Amino acid sequence: TYNFSAGPAMLPTDVMLRAQQEFINWQGQGCSVMEMSHRSKAFIEVAERATHNLRKLLAVPDDYQILFTHGGGRGQFSAVPLNLSAAGDHADHLVTGSWSKGAVSEAQNYLQADVVGGVEVVDGITQVQAQQNWKLNDKASYFHYCPNETVEGIEINTVPDTNGVPIVADMSSNILSRTIDVSKFAVIYGGAQKNIGPSGLSVVIVHNSMLDKARVETPSILNYGIIAKHDSMYNTPPTFAWYLAGLVFEWLLDLGGVAEVEKRNQAKSDLLYNAIDNNDFYANRVALQNRSRMNVPFHLANPELDALFLKESEAAGLKALKGHRIVGGMRASIYNAMPIEGVKALIEFMNDFAKRNG
Ligand code: PLP
């Protein structure tokens, strides 16, 4: 079985096997890691190792804090304005799909969230507007964008130039899939349930200069300064998710790190997009430069065959290919944990289905 779910998503098989082995008797402790105090020496070691390894994987500079917290990606839609702005401030938002739109509606509860740019459709193909057409505001408290739109399969490959305005990125669905220059960002955040681990955990990478600006009314569990000061243990963290994330980080390091997994992601997505482009039976409607390596939406030329495609693909062990209801059609999410064999199996099925129904 290959699981193409957009999230919670497939985790590396080796990690799941190790977690299973350790499940009820973690490191000879006689209990599961999820049954231990977050303040125990043993768990603190797990937490510190995970943090250290994530810092290594993304080459996070010393003047950034890594926070492991609650509230998923959406929790950060509120945490960002609360930590980075005062009431009445403006923030620039690039809206390229469902999640960056969601961030605007939440931010509007706290400040003036201005939509400064987005996508355009040219000949039926969606692309992100060129940056010179965005209406950036030099006085904005921050610029927010989503480098990978999970629903629409739209990815932005270069970090925008905001003329010094702090950049905040929702990397929920592409963190750790490619190398990034963390020093260009004020805040990077993401829900864990795609490339990091199970849901219930979010990771925030925040520059030190953003730690003491929170509004007084900021709930402590969203306050970057408080979370950082207490090593992400001001309240009880999602310990099991943090432990599992640590196993995923070790798996990634053993694989050769983010540069290596990026090569694999490039190869997997190239294969799948080529298969779609080379067959009139299927179409992807995102411009080449914005096609996501993580989430590949595609449509059948005849949507009446959608239900049959889903039924047969499920029976063939290819799970969760139904597209998001906003976009329709199909979506194959091929995060870090998806092996190339899974992509090949999908392509084989797609070609065969097209032959039989074309
Ligand atoms: N941002 C992006 C890009 C996402 O893909 C998601 C969820 O899939 C979210 C935010 C929301 O995350 P959560 O459901 O963890 O709040």
Tag the structure with descriptive keywords.
aminotransferase; PyrdxlP-dep_Trfase_small; Aspartate Aminotransferase, domain 2; Aminotrans_V_dom; alpha/beta; binds pyridoxal-5'-phosphate; Pser_aminoTfrase; single chain; 3-stranded antiparallel sheet; 8-stranded mixed sheet; 18% strand; O-phospho-L-serine:2-oxoglutarate aminotransferase activity; Aspartate Aminotransferase, domain 1
Number of β-strand runs: 15
Percentage of β-strand residues: 15-25%
Distance between the termini: 26 Å
Alpha-beta content class:
alpha/beta
Number of domains as seen in the coordinates: 2
How large is the count of helical segments? 9
The molecules bound to the chains, other than polymers, are: pyridoxal-5'-phosphate
Overall 3D shape: globular
Q: Spans with pLDDT under 50 lasting ≥5 residues? A: none
CATH class of the largest domain: Alpha Beta
Question: Architecture of the largest domain, CATH level 2?
Answer: 3-Layer(aba) Sandwich
Q: Looking at CATH, which topology of the largest domain would you report?
A: Aspartate Aminotransferase, domain 2
Q: Enumerate the strands of the largest sheet in spatial order, edge to edge or round the barrel.
A: 2-11-10-9-6-3-4-5
What is the rounded Rg? Answer: 21 Å
Q: Look at the structure and give the mean pLDDT.
A: 97
Q: Tell me the CATH superfamily of the largest domain.
A: Type I PLP-dependent aspartate aminotransferase-like (Major domain)
Q: Percent range for helical residues? A: 25-40%
Largest sheet: 8 strands, mixed
Return the string of H and E elements.
EHHEHEHEEEEEEEEHHHEEHEEH
